[in-house]
Amino acid sequence: MIDVKQLKYFVTIAEEGQITKAAQKLHIAQPPLSQQLKQLEEELGVPLFDRKAKKMELTAPGKAFYEKAKQLLRQLDDAVAEVKEIEAGATGTLSIGCVKSCFYYLAQAVRRFHEQFPNVTFHLREGDTFSICQLLQERQIDIGIVRLPMDAAHYEMIRLPSDRYIAVLPEHWALSKPYLSMRDFADWPLLLLHRVHGAGQYERVIEECRRHGFEPNVLCECPDATILLSLVAQGIGATIVPQSTVALFCLPGIRVLDIIDSSMNAEAAVIIDRQRYLPKSAHYFLDILEKTVTRAEPPSLR
């Protein structure tokens, strides 16, 4: 009879690629681990690994069983978490991943949630949209807050209010007018947000520049909004970012201006894994987040 322990052992061996490494990770001796794997293969009647290779590689039946075993272990973890929450209520740790340029949406919701549920602690992770999706797939976070566009096929999505793009310039640049047009950026070095993987805000800004008849002079690409704003404050160049980004990360030495002829809007969304049990605390947080962002006034320009 196959048990949960054997499934955990098998999945660990598959992921580590060696009995020795798997035994170290599981904190057990190597011989009993090898014996458990042998018993599992005898129970199934098929070899799960090709032992001729230097690294233990899954056979075709092994690959199929690995995916099913992972799914079963996840379902078991979800069931245990759900049963514990029925008794405990909203407690424990809520893990949230957020794109830095979306922190504006997160900050007020965290404060309001903590006021209502003081027994829940937070584990916050930061990254671009691609890395937040990876963290969600790896079950390292419960909720992701990302910039669009993205492939939403595997996620349940809650769209957040759209956000216009604004200009951020070094404060010492001599400009007399209180706003800009896109053509003003034609001769300036631009510092732009760029995802580690995939298309996003960078491509939108480039496309908008071309729509206004010029090829931008991109001096720097970076996935971190605070780094870009710091570079602007040092006089390196100008940037175009969502307005909410500046609302939380406004630094001395910069000037924020509206762009009167830009058609760009930044879009954000909350994503969750529709195949996974969502903790009770996460449901409460999503409810508070939705209410917070729909009632909040849009961030103002300085």
TrEMBL record:
HTH lysR-type domain residues: 2-59
Residues in the signal sequence: none
CDD domains per UniProt: PBP2_LTTR_substrate
InterPro entries listed in its UniProt record: LysR_HTH_N, LysR_subst-bd, WH-like_DNA-bd_sf, WH_DNA-bd_sf
Record keywords: DNA-binding, Transcription, Transcription regulation
Claim: NADP is one of the keywords in the record: no
Keyword match DNA-binding: yes
Coiled coil ranges: none
One Pfam family cited in the UniProt record for this chain: HTH_1
Family: Belongs to the LysR transcriptional regulatory family.
Name the UniProt record assigns to this protein: LysR family transcriptional regulator
Species of the source: Geobacillus jurassicus
